[in-house]
Structures
1.
Amino acid sequence: MMIGPFKAKEKEGQERIDKILSRSFQLPAETEASVMEIITEVRKGGDQALAEYTRKFDASEFTTERIAVSQRELDQAYNQVTQEFMAALKKAIANIREFHERQLPSSWFLPREDGTILGQMISPVDRAGLYVPGGAGGKTPLVSSVLMNAIPAVISGVKEIILCTPPTADGGINPYILVAAREAGVHQVFRAGSAWAIAAMAFGTESIPKADVIAGPGNIFVTVAKKLVSGMVGIDMIAGPSEILVIADDTAEPAFIAADMLSQAEHDALATSIALCSSQEVAAETAKEVEQQLNQLERADLAKRSLAENGAIIVVDQIEDAVEISNQIGPEHLELMVRDPWTLLPRIRHAGAVFMGSHTPEPIGDYIAGPNHVLPTMGTSRFSSALGVETFLKKTSVISYSREAFDRDAPDVMLLAGIEGLTAHSRSVGIRRERS
């Protein structure tokens, strides 16, 4: 496996950069067709369709009676988790809550002397639907995904929060998921996975109520399902494979850079892991560290494929060059392992999240720091943001005109409507001038 170091201004380095810049996340047409069939079946068959898909792919003895998780099951889950887990969970919840509470926008109103009042009213959706993947058949429960989706929804004021997650082979759900869901503020949990869970939350079934917004990570089938129901319900984003970009100077520790690159490479063979180094020595040592640390990973084969296809260690002439390349890429996760990251931060224009300094590895953000780990990928940080409280909020414009303000603006409205050929619009204003 050869991931560098390459020099940014030489052919192979430029080719690696160009490949990263041209990355795209394709949703296969055949997958869309399969998912559309699933959505249609769930929309038509409701709970029965959910049970059939669950028997086929998750739990062979599953029945419709098991779709909803009972409060008794939630209570019992607490007996199956450790006290150490509960302490870590409560710390993470407190940090995530504190961060997201600062995101809450306020309604506002602008009164004018002529009696006009204009404003914007902020209100939450009625029901949020969250999706959490099964995590290797329930063996690796994605607790952090529960927290990162549920807590912003709670803070936004959503009155009903439901969560779907696939059952294990015996029809259960990992107790760590259930405890995290209750502690985070989820109101009801359902056993449903993949595209059929998304369809159920988008359109409703006998057991699962229709949601207004659906959020949460998932595989290609979940991603395609969210894309297909978008517009009928709100979604958080269409997320691609994980990404990390490390900007490093001569003070950076190569072992840290390598470990952080591998932290994303182990996610997915399509994940992107890049280091932009202003020091040839740091770059070379990082390449050695990657090789050494790979052998210690449970997912070494997966990480090796990821790095071979989408990894690179690139040497730049100066840190400013690294910043410019990073802004072109717009990575999901950006780490600044430099002498003074705060000096560099104002020059960062596009990134999902920025991790400052050698003691702020990306997993800190994944689990416990507080900011959301659901981030834009594939360069979409150029125009989009992390999942947050606003994902579950909507804005309503408020307009109130006095008679004085109406008389002042009516002629202009009639003129503009007439130019557009909308005579009924013009008449709506004109009739008030005539009869009042």
2.
Amino acid sequence: MFAIIGAAIVLVSVVGGFLLEKGNLSVIIQPVEMLIIFGAAIGAFVIASPMKVIKNVIGGVLKIFTGKAYSKSDYMEVLLLLSEIFSKIRKEGLVSIEADVDNPAESKIFSNYTKFLKNHHAVALVTDTLRTVMTTSIAPHELEALLDTELESHHEESMIPSKSIGVIADGLPGLGIVAAVLGVVLTMGKISEPPEILGHSIGSALVGTFLGVLMCYGFVGPMSRNLEFAATEERDYLNVLKIALVGFVGGAAPQIAVEFARRVIPGNVKPSFVEVEEKIRELKK
């Protein structure tokens, strides 16, 4: 939603300012220039990217306009889930959650946390870690190193859309110059025409540079930055799970492990100690 608002502000500011200065809007609407710039940008992206990256970028662009940032309620939900899992393990042993881990969608515990279940990476991180603990004698420091490696790998993968779109943004001003040069070449073929025709032709050619720079700094570059923030948010969310799991496997009581996790939640969405404690009490009732 905010991405759409931002794009509207950019368009209104640029086009509105041009019109306020008595500009002729028809001069900057050049479909052929757009075809040259965007066609070349898309073609270069296809050349540089395997199909997996192309799919990731398309999915990332859609998330810019449809995705939502992690909220306080999302973090509260995951803390309550971890508390419930850890408490059951502490009371009944690791074997008691084997069915929950093998089939989270039908688990009585996981099914109460629908938002969490939709996050496949988070579900896999929790279930795979618990399976590892159940089937091996892995030490807490080894588990932490393993999870750090997994989170780093996942973050690098989630940064691919941002980096790819950033490369496209960096190339747009250059492609705008390409379109402008082609326009100048066409203008040189009209050198015998009257000045008003030459002026219109040169103005149309310069629109290529304008469009390339505007798209780079007004739209595509900010989209890359948006995806970078989204990847960082995802890493922070998964890190909360890691801290709780490592703390519990290291011998911390369920409530202490949950508190470890709460401490690393980003400040703007972090629930207070009292809020978490009250929710856990309600859950136990």
3.
Amino acid sequence: MKKIYAIALLGLMVLGLAATASAAEIKATGKWQIDATMQNADFLKKGAVSEDKQFNIEQRVRTAFEFIANENLKGVLDIQIGTANWGTGAMSVGAGRSISTAAYTLGADQAGNGNIMLRRGFVDFKWPGTKVNFLVGYQTVSLPAAFGGGSAILDDQVAAAVMVAPLTDNIKLLAGYARPYDSNPSQTTTAGGVTGSGTSTDVVFAAVPMDFTGFNITPFGAYANIGASTVATGLNTSGGAGAVMGLSGVNSTSNQGMRAYWGGVAATVTALDSFKFMGDFNYGKVAGSGNRNSNNRAGWMADIAVDYTGFKMMTPEAFFVYSSGEKGNSTDGGQSGSNRMPSLGNPQTWAVGSFFFGDRNFITSYTGQDGYVQRIMGFWTAGVSLKDIKLIDKFSHTANLLYVKGTNDKRFISERTTSTAANSNGAAYGGFLTTKDSLWEVDFNTKYMIYDELAVNLDLGYINANFDKNVWGASKASNAADIKQYGNNDAYSARLGVVYSF
């Protein structure tokens, strides 16, 4: 009899769960990816101590769920496991189980050092009786961009509240508030913690997308109030988080409040048959307290690109990108301020080509870090691409050829007075380009669709580098001795990946 009661109770529980689940439709999407990479991308010749040749296999699982109550309300949960290198921890994937050093036979049951990361978690709803849409929670916020795949200013997951309101049939207003950092969210004094005021960074932003037949244009602006104590080491410091995030000026010091401003426009024109024109202009400025000249950072970035869409078998594209660089001078090595465009967060998707500026097909760019584009700001590049080449069923290819040259004055690194500033401020060899540095890049990328949801990617890249060893050999870079002795070398990359998208 007890078994019958237990079975009946279990059945009621299942029915209850089913009834609860029926209150919302659940839709799952995801991108599960495994990549193998062989590359040499440190631009140093054989014999250098820091020579970097590597073969890695990475794995990342992203899965998103939409909990749809009705056409006006849903919740979004997006989680990620990894990125993890195969073999991180003995015989493990790194995001799963690992061998126990005490008993190898129990390895399959030992927890690994991986974790589940929240990428997005927000509520998406329309205000009753209107077309005004709200997105509140942890979400992806990206400022407008017509070319490059995403914004070079802000394109990241962040806690935010966003409103999208139609003004006319062709014009919308997008406005939002975000808090990317709060070093004392509980507003309490704790031993060893960040105390006092000014521990948060707050951002407001707005854009006005205007979409008409044959063209669209989106002006935008953003403002950030950066607290003096945001992120204990200083979001605003030259050697702290501020440098990593692309906010600080050259000689910023900790415990300084800062104000940041951005503005720009993104435009696309399709009015001409078989042609698509894209263009962006971005400007940003960060102003600090105290000696304002040394704490300021201000710069701009612009691009233009044209696609020819008249071919069925491919889409040729030509592009040009320019970003302002550090000026420097003979007396202070650029310490009167920074002339590169500041950014907020780690721009995730902006790239041209698929090697030096990053590769959106694969998990990790050769730099091994997100946000690489803002740290190499100070360049111009021109190139051509043949996109979506289709010659054989289920195969597609992309070919890129680009030339890149720096716009940063060489004296910015050769005349630095702070020994660590050349590295901490993003002026690292192999990324930061002076006017004496240039490179050619050629890529050939292939995708084969095994099924509609399963793809195999093979990306091949080569960079012919010309970094001035005299300039870098006399710099404050940590590997200056190797650069001076061995000079620069070319870089290559061969990447093979399997992607299951659903």
4.
Amino acid sequence: MKVALFVTCLIDLMRPRVGFAALELLTAAGGEVEVPETQTCCGQPAWNSGDRASAIRLAKKLIAEFEGFDYVVVPSGSCADHIKHEYPAILGDEPEWQARAVALGRRVYELTDFLVHVVRLEAVPGRFAGRVTYHDSCTGLRSLGIKAQPRALLKRAGVEVLEMNGAEECCGFGGTFSVKFGEISAAIAERKCANACATGAAAIVGGDLGCLLNIEGKLRRMGDETTQVLHIAEVLTAKS
């Protein structure tokens, strides 16, 4: 089984340790794992901003880089969804590329979904000390059905999850939404942070780094310097 890890831009630029944690989890799951060195962006920011030409170019680049693998695993529901569900539309005017996009999309999985439903990972390599609350990112939840998978993995790691009110509500990030509608985004993020902190959990955990950076930024601006904000891959590989 040849598995490719698509790292994502935010992880590469902002929190590389999430990529290394995802790689550790995939290695623990068995199989041959590779991280294609030429990978860059999936093109989602360009597509969402109306830059069709760049979105097409990046989609073709990614397809060419990853279509030789049995599976492509992405530690981000947002990016995984873009590759799986948007590429066929982006490349709709080019039947050959569209067919390649559809074929690749069938083999693309969000990280926790892959670990639970494909390789059925029973034991995770880390042990996290402390209780957490989980934020369900919008795209992963609503487009990919990512809900039970991360909680199942946290349970296998012996982590107690304290459910917050509004766990399925948006954090206010939404990619360019947080830039275009800053005041609305900040209000949504404040409500998310308040709900999370009310649980008494030591950490807020999620599967999309964009959401987590947005939540952490708001927490710190609210004066909270102690609550951790972690990607689930970090929790599942923690050595504490």
